[in-house]
Design a protein that fits this description.
Blueprint: H1 10-13, H2 23-66, H3 72-77, H4 87-96
């Protein structure tokens, strides 16, 4: 009989013992993995939301600069830094939230 691995026959593998945890332990493992992947999914969604907010803010800031609502040259000439949220700080705040 053919197998997916050349030189390995099912008779080579058939007598191999495989440890299988009790059903209750399997369920506990599956529940744990469900909880943890749920946390990861929620964190990923929050990061995506933060990225979207930062992109909107960036677009609004560019629009304000282009339309003259803010004077970028004046702020730069006076050594001022335009106030806007630091992207890494926003993402760090999302990452530090508790679930």
């Amino acid at each position: 009989m053919k197998s997916a691995v050349p030189g390995v026959d099912r008779n080579d593998i058939h007598p191999t013992a495989v440890a299988v945890p009790p059903l209750s332990e399997q369920r506990a493992i599956a529940d744990y993995l469900d909880r943890e992947t749920g946390k990861i999914d929620r964190l990923a969604a929050k990061v995506e939301e933060a990225i979207a907010r930062l992109q909107e803010y960036r677009a609004a800031l560019i629009t304000a600069a282009v339309t003259g609502k803010i004077d970028v040259r004046e702020a730069a000439g006076m050594g001022k830094r335009l106030e806007y949220p630091e992207p890494r700080a926003e993402l760090r705040m999302v990452a530090e939230e508790r679930f």
